[in-house]
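User: We ran a pulldown and think these components assemble together. Before we commit to crystallization trials, I'd like a predicted model of the whole complex to look at. Sequences follow.
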Amino acid sequence: MRFKSTWRRFWSEPGFAVAAIIVAALLIFFILLPLSAVLLRSFGVGGDGFTLEYYEQFFQHSSYFQALLNSVGVGVVTTTIVIFISVPFALYVTRTTNTLSKVYRGLSLLPLVAPPFIFSLSLIILFGRRGLVTNYLNDMLGVEFSIYGFWGVVVAQVLGFFPVAYMMIESTLRSMNPSLENASRDLGASQTRTLFKVSLPLASTSILKASLIVFVMALADFSNPLIIGGETSFLASDAYLLVTGQQNMEMAAVLGVFLIVPSLIVFLFQTYFIKDTDTTSISGSAGTQNATLNKGLQGITFGISTLMTFFIVVMFIMVVLGAFVQIIGVDNTFTLDHFSDQSGWSFIYTSVIVSFFAALLAAGLGLLQGYLTVRKNIPAKKFLEFVALFGLAVPGTVMGIGYVLIFNGPPFFLTGTVLLLVLNMAFRKIGVGLESGISKLQQIDTSMEEASADLGAKPTRTIRKIVMPLLSPAFMSGFVYTFMTAMVSVSSVIFLISPGTNLASVYILNLANQAALGRASAMSVIMIAIVLVCMAILKWLERRSNSGI
Amino acid sequence: MTQQDSIISLTHVSKAFGDVRAVQDISIDVKKGELVTFIGPSGCGKTTLLRTIAGFYSPTAGEIYLEGTRINDFPPEKRATGMVFQNYALFPHMTIFENVAYGLDVRKETKETKKERVNDALAQVQLEGYENRKPSELSGGQQQRVAIARCLVLKPKVLLLDEPLSNLDANLRMMMRDEIRRLKEELDLTIIFVTHDQEEALSISDRLMVLNEGNLQQLDKPEVIYQRPVNEFVANFVGHANLLSGQVKQDNNNSYFVSRDIQFTVENMNNGNGLVLIRPEMIHIHQEGEVEGVVINKVYHGNSVRYEVRVGDTVLLADDYNVFGKNLYSKGQTIYLDIPKQLHLISA
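Assistant: Here's a predicted model for the assembly, 897 residues in total across the polymer chains.
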């Protein structure tokens, strides 16, 4: 009875019903199907038939099992270090009035605009086999030193993933209602006590969330282990080598499953078990500012923040220098040779085109799904939301393997086509458009649409004149975010490229692996420039739409 | 009155959401030029009823007529009703002019007509010269006026106002209340007004419909609602009330009202059991009289003093309005209450 009436309501607006069915079909086809393929293939299904042989091999073959241990290991170590830096850094930025804090904030976000393996690149420039520091240590002190391996990966990840955690923690600390800290002080607690009894506990949810996200990112990291992991094996990079080197899809799928499981657990955990502590919307006006830290705490947080910012800046300078000199450390004469890489430029062109269409698709479909989710009664909408967001959480490597399994052979033969690259990037990021659409629509009161109908507008007109203009900021931010991340993403598309359709980020990774550091640096600089321009456009659009509304 | 002379006519309208019955069996005819208020505590169904009239919900049972036409299944855009939302729902990306012109655009009016009618509507709400501003540049009261103008410009058969004054501060609320009355008189508007503020409802309405838990309690003129409520709920919800349970008794030539602690003379009241309604301002306090009590609390309001007076185990509220320059009674003081002889009895 209830089911029937749900269906009748669903079909009462046929346009939306058809849209919902299309969105659902696409999500299932381009997210769920590839993931299922990975899971099934790990049991041999789709290959030689059902078997547990590959799991047996995984646990017997020490190098595979070791890869799991190593990946979990870097995950734990990287996360711990990142959190112990992010919290004081965020405190320094939000709880001091020092102008330097704003500079630090800007610089700390630099890694977001760079390819994910930029720090591996600069670490090799500094500490690689012929690195600047390595040579110096060798010549002066006779110390042999190698950055390759577990700790190299950790350092590269700490630098690269720090801004993700930092941004989440900072925004919580910033938006916290100052009256809470003021009340604690007023009740006689010292500042340090207030920090540990009020501020940090209130931020604990976001610190936990940040830790989980960094942990999964580090665990599933693909490019840093590939460049700087040396002889040490890690899950994602090993899975890639299994696919490309040995065509051992089954074993790659097993490694993929070990990548999915932690990301699924973390995703479920943070979607369903972590309740946000609401620290902002406590009633009463929040006219005041949070008090600044006392001298001692300021000193500690300043020290940590300075050290971190210094490392980030040095790393970036290394890449820029590497791009503009012949061979850094060997022949330091200025040159633009590294920028005259014909194939490099053509790959950048491909990257821009692919990322543009992927972003268009992801933001558009994401918003459409968001609208259907928030405003319409679509059967199974919670499930579809789950699929889209899980697509965002699944490690790229797994998605890449899944796409190879589904689209490599008949009836699709899509591997190597630009279309498949677009689809892969788009559906991995559709959750971004969905989330920004949902949050924007929740801010827009339904009464807007009702007022439009009340004034005589048909649903199509309401969508066109009211919903779409009001959602355009969400579309733009979803579009630019997807474009930026698609430009620098590697882990998934690396499985899907062909010599004709190479992408810039993958090309840079290969250059770095071949120790062509000059050209890799130059390409990275170009990528960073493009992404920075995008961010500037986003900021400009944001400001324009804010002044309009 | 029949359906034909009324603008809006509801007959036995019910609305349920799943198993929750939000509104049950409501019938009302709203005449041309009348302002009817739906009033009740939150969750009483008043907004649901208004949204059912606007077309955002379709009734589960019953009929809705607009000038004699059954509109049960008409979507909002096909109904000639104009709704002003509680949060105004002005389109933030459009100017004031574009907001007010929105409904005219739908009707594909010419540029000239559009301009003329938007200007007229803005003039009616005294907002000339604001055409090119954005909603965010206007104060709350001004946004409210735009929301009204946006409806007026379409000449709706009935204007539906959903708690329109609740987001305004006290002074502005009074002003807008008068403004809505003025617009109603000038333009002969038919208005349905939803509020939970009984003072607002009493002062603005031609008729009030009091709702509780989805059921109609009483539908009448403000003075009838205030003076002759049909039940305990209405008596308590609209205004402050002393309700004494007891009976009217005949003794020789006199009648008395007898309750547990209090007994006093009444006139022209039929014998019977029930609740007698005594509004605090109806009681006069004297140095001597029929009913003796002790002041247990007093609250000074400026134009009046509210005393809580204990008589036996019953506490009565009494407002003394004639206090200028007088000494106030103090806590613990014994006083005498003068209760009017003609009272409204809510039959048990």
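The first strand of chain A starts at residue 325 and ends at 327. That may be worth checking against your pulldown data before setting up trials.

User: Thanks, that helps.
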